[in-house]
């Protein structure tokens, strides 16, 4: 009797189209990246397309490049998208990361109040920093372990200045928040161009085009050498996609319609940009 019931049950399932498929586990990866890719809106444009093309969902952690690298070092991210080349090279040399691939670049710009009390308009980046310090004009720094903060420190060194005192203020926050603070305080700051263009209110672009302001982004795959939770296949999927033709085209087109200019220049497969 039991065998007859079993057969009937199987026939019924077959008639109904078979047993319902078990819900598939969501394929999800963790991307540690910079606040500039988040604040500029680039990730909002790229990530839905990545998910549609690959099936991978993305959980984003937007922090400074140094913090993103640290997440990778601890095995708490599958893939990194960062813009602090010296720190990236040192990290990859440690041996827990996989491929480091060129993705895109834009540039940094020096911003400040329209009145420009330090007179930096048109100056080279290092000279502008020196003038700000000599004038004791307010400079608002991210003051975090980001690629922007690393470039700012390099510019102070080039200018022969050790910043400090009441005129030098640190937010410890991302680029968008730092721009807002600088605008509120009528201060100067260093920003990537993309975030500035997406949040321009209250600040004037005063210095740009210096070779020392080049801002280059790489994708870095993590491996299980960083930790057992790392998903190398997810890292490879993201790295291959963002350096592939479809993503590179999206990167090149991003910002043109809204701002009249591209916010990032796609670089995959090209020689490394050199300041």
From TrEMBL:
Transmembrane portions of the chain: none
Domain (PBP): residue spans on this chain: 22-244
Tagged with keyword Signal: yes
One Pfam family of this chain: PBP_like_2
InterPro entries for this protein: ABC-Tungstate_binding (IPR052738), PBP_domain (IPR024370)
Domain of life where this protein originates: Bacteria
Signal peptide range: 1-20
Keywords of this entry: Signal
Protein name: Solute-binding protein
Originating organism: Pseudonocardia xinjiangensis
């Amino acid at each position: 009797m039991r065998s007859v019931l079993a057969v009937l049950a199987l026939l019924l399932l077959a008639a109904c189209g078979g047993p319902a498929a078990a819900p598939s586990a969501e394929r999800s990866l963790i991307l540690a990246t910079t606040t500039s890719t988040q604040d500029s809106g680039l990730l909002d444009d790229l990530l839905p397309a990545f998910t549609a093309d690959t099936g991978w969902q993305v959980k984003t952690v937007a922090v400074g490049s140094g913090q993103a690298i640290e997440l990778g070092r601890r095995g708490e991210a599958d893939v990194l998208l960062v813009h602090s080349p010296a720190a990236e090279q040192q990290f990859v040399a440690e041996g827990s990361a996989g491929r480091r691939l060129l993705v895109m670049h834009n540039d940094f710009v020096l911003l400040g109040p329209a009145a420009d009390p330090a007179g930096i308009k048109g100056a080279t980046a290092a000279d502008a920093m020196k003038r700000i310090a000599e004038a004791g004009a307010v400079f608002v720094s991210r003051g975090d372990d980001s690629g922007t903060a690393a470039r700012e420190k390099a510019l102070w060194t080039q200018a022969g200045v050790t910043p400090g005192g009441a005129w030098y203020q640190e937010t410890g926050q991302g680029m968008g928040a730092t721009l807002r603070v600088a605008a509120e305080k009528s201060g100067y700051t260093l920003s990537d161009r993309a975030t500035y263009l997406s949040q321009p209110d209250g600040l004037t672009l005063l210095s740009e085009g210096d070779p020392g302001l080049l801002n280059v982004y790489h994708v870095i795959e993590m491996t299980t050498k960083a930790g057992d939770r790392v998903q190398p296949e997810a890292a490879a999927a993201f790295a291959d996609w963002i350096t592939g033709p479809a993503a590179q085209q999206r990167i090149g087109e991003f910002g043109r319609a809204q701002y009249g200019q591209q916010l990032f220049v796609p670089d995959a497969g090209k020689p490394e940009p050199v300041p």
